[in-house]
Amino acid sequence: MYSAWTAKYKPKCLAEVVGNTEAIKQFTDWIKSWERGAPKKRCVFLWGPPGIGKTVSTEVAANDLRMEFVEKNASDYRTEDAVNRFAGLASQYGSLFGGKRIILLDELDGLTGTADRGGVKAITDIAKTAQFPIVLIANNAYDPRFTNLRNYCLLIEFKKPAVGDVAKRLKQICEKEAIQADEDALKFIAQRSTGDIRSAVNDLQALGQGKKKLTYEDVSWLGYRDRQDTIFNVLRMIFYAKTVSSAKQAMNMSDADPDMLFEWIYENVPAHFTDPHDLANAMDALAMADVYRGRIRHTRDWSLMRYVVDYMTAGIAMARQSTKTSGWTPFKFPTRIMMLSRSRADRAIRRSIGNKIKRRCHISAVRASKEFLPFLRIIFKNNSEMAAGIAKWLDLDREMVEYVCESEG
Amino acid sequence: MSFEMWAEKYRPKNLDDMVNQREIVERLKSFVKSRNVPHCIFAGPPGTGKTTAALCLARDLYREAYREHLMELNASDERGIDVVRETVKTFARVKSIGEIPFKIMILDEADNMTSDAQQALRRTMERYTETCRFIMCANYSGKIIEPIQSRCAPFRFTYLPREEHDHYLKEIATKEKVKLTSEGLDAVFEVCGGDLRRAINTLQSAASLGKPVDSKVVYSVTGKASPADVQKMLKVAMDGDFVEARKQLREMIQKYGLAGSDIIRQIHTEIFRGDVPEKWKIKLADIVGEVDYRLVEGADEEVQLSALLAKLVEAGYAMKTGK
After folding, report:
1. Residues B284, B271: contact at Cβ < 8 Å?
2. ipTM strictly over 0.85?
3. Among B4, B204, B242, whose Cβ lies nearest the Cβ of A375?
4. pLDDT at B197
């Protein structure tokens, strides 16, 4: 039966939550402190990026400590009245069975100005007088709306778990699902999720469910699986922007990875800038964006990113002088990326052939594959007897021989 | 015909077998005679006998036991500082037993060593001179740091002149019972320009066709062996087909593993040779230089070079329209 792995493999107890050990310790200590009466701060404010276990930590904490769990999130109305009705009742009176209770107000970022009028103020009032531990969750605790509320809360920041930790969790899931997964593949998924373990698990399910093996090749497509639509829009906005600011805005609209967007632009510029001058200028802008990428690599100063973006967006848009916007030109998937994943395997085998030649011919593997391989191709194509002799002499294995025979030259 | 790589099979074994680089060979022979070898730099273009000379020297010096006294390291593959600190040092400091008190270390393609590694090497060379002599082979001696150069006797290898080139190839053809016509020989020399390794590889792959090796066979083979047809790519760009030119560029880099620096060097030559409009030549040279510099800085080869191709499209268009 199909079930979402995010639910199926949701942590059942605090020990199973990935990462954030310190934050969780601080959090449980605070809950336990209620046993000695209401602590100074009656509210705890868990904050941090999405998908890293804030909500689930609260749920399983309640479970671990055998407390009743009451939750309200963005899907509920949160006007002053509604919050009061809910949290007021929940906090002022004893729980149904006389036990302890934990109250969660999730997704506070979702409080809107008009519909949830007074919500923050009501929460603040409750925070002052609560009789039960109250847990607030938001992505950004430093939103100005929470300024006053913060004074009454114990702030605990949840951080993105390390890639290794996420990958480890993915591995456990694979083991339970009987999937043999490459370390590389899992690491790639983990990296791409940038700590959002929920999305990592979702991706893993999308790619791995029902499979026996999961290789790097399988997952390398992931990077561009989902966001093509948004990419198309962004590309269109950049390529056909009339002003610098609208071109730059296109970038803000999307959460596309800049490197990936760069590849899309690089692939599609020629089809959309057909006038030779425009093309030269657009390619020039891209080359400059690339120069700044290099400078970022050298200096590790990411603030230089803004210049990459300038060239990639405004630089491209302003290259358009004479090319008319004629009809509809479709956007193509970056060929370079497709070739890159293919040529990874090629490079590896070239390298191993190079090493074989090196052992015989006093030349580096790098140069061997350049200086000998083209000639070997010709020999292998034309003279199987000589080819067999050379293959034996160089000690090439079957795979290598096939590579030499098949690759064009 | 024999079934191994001829370039290796016919590599001279002793200094006496080497017919080219005569002056160098004579000096090396005198080292053998005196049983003493200084640190050396063998500099020169590929396929001119640098590694061969080093190997021959070692063989003549140590006779049958040469393997025990010789180590070959290839800096293109093992270029890091760790190699110098560990492999090189370990080899260099252990005293050799036998008549000759030192060993020989051949550092091939030494111009590919990182400068850190070269710095580390400089101490090792000095400290273990008694037990180990270094022969550094390099295409460009300029890429070897000054302090190392000053510790080494320099030897400058040059492309084989026509007679010596012909001598080798004819001998191989005779031994392999391959019919090599004189036009075929001309063609090989024209294409390989005195790079003997390339010449022998060309001869062997031409011979593999089973026909007499004439100029037609040679050109058909070398045409296939050099997919990196920079000239063709430039023409495609100048004719206005940017997408096709970029595709060819991509294949050179990704499929054939050509280095951006090699491509740019060829582009630079072609610009002054080809039918580029006069007023564009120096303009393009400036752009080529800028791209070259960016590549040294570590920019993306394909992106930078294709921006250059786009400039050529522009130049080609300007030429046609007279603008």
Report:
1. yes
2. no
3. B204
4. 92
Task: Identify the sign of the CA torsion B204, B209, B212, B213.
Answer: negative
Closest partner residue to A290 (CB to CB) among B5, B11, B303 is B303
A279 in B contact zone (CB under 8 Å)? yes
Question: Hey, is the C-beta of A259 within 8 angstroms of any chain B C-beta?
Answer: no
Q: Write down the domain spans for chain A.
A: 20-157, 163-224, 228-333, 337-406
pLDDT digits over A354-378, tens only?
Answer: 999 988 888 888 788 878 888 898 8
Confidence of residue B257 (pLDDT cuts 50, 70, 90): low
> CB count, 10 Å around CB of A126?
24
Give the pLDDT score at A27: 93
* Residue B294 to chain A, least CA–CA distance (Å): 7
User: For residue B108, which residues of chain A lie inside 8 Å, CB to CB?
Assistant: 362-364
Cβ <8 Å between B303 and A286: yes
Q: Are A236 and A224 in contact (CB under 8 A)?
A: no
The answer to whether B228 faces chain A, any CB pair under 8 Å, is no
* A134-156 per-position pLDDT tens digit: 899 988 888 888 888 888 899 99
DSSP state of A110: G
In B, minimum Cα distance to A365 occurs at: B77
The top-level CATH class assigned to A163-224 is: mainly alpha
Strand partners, B153: B40
Sorted by sequence, the CB contacts under 8 Å of residue B129 that are 6+ apart come out as B39, B102
Q: Does B48 touch chain A (CB under 8 A)?
A: no
**Which residues pair with residue B213 across a beta bridge?**
B180
CA angle A84, A87, A89 (to 5 degrees): 85
Nearest chain A CA: its distance from B242 CA (Å): 7
Kindly state whether B114 is in contact with chain A, defined as any CB-CB distance less than 8 angstroms. Answer: no
**Dist. CA A301–CA A293, nearest whole Å:** 10
Residues in chain B within 8 Å Cβ distance of A340: 254
H or E segment and range at residue A42: none
Give the minimum alpha-carbon distance from B217 to chain A in angstroms, rounded to a whole number.
12
Task: Give me the CATH topology for the region A20-157.
Answer: Rossmann fold (3.40.50)
| Average pLDDT along chain A, 409 residues, taken 10 residues at a time | 76 88 91 84 88 89 86 66 68 59 81 66 81 87 84 90 89 90 86 81 81 79 55 86 86 76 93 93 96 87 92 94 74 80 76 89 84 87 89 90 75
Which residues numbered 158-217 in B keep a CB inside 8 Å of some CB on A?
197-198, 201-202, 204-205, 208-210
| pLDDT at A1 (0 to 100) | 44
Domain boundaries, chain B: 21-156, 162-225, 230-321
Nearest to A266 among B2, B303, B316 (CB): B303
Enumerate residues 6+ apart whose C-beta is below 8 A from B175: B10
Range of weakest confidence among A35-44, B54-63, B268-277, B304-313: B268-277
Could you say which of A284, A290, A360 has the minimum Cβ distance to residue B299? A290
CATH topology of domain B21-156: Rossmann fold (3.40.50)
Residue closest to A395 by CA, chosen among A367, A358, A363: A358
Query: Per CATH, the architecture of B230-321 is what?
Result: Up-down Bundle (1.20)
Q: Chain A residues with CB inside 8 Å of B254's CB?
A: 336, 339-340, 343
Q: What is the CATH number of domain B162-225?
A: 1.10.8.60
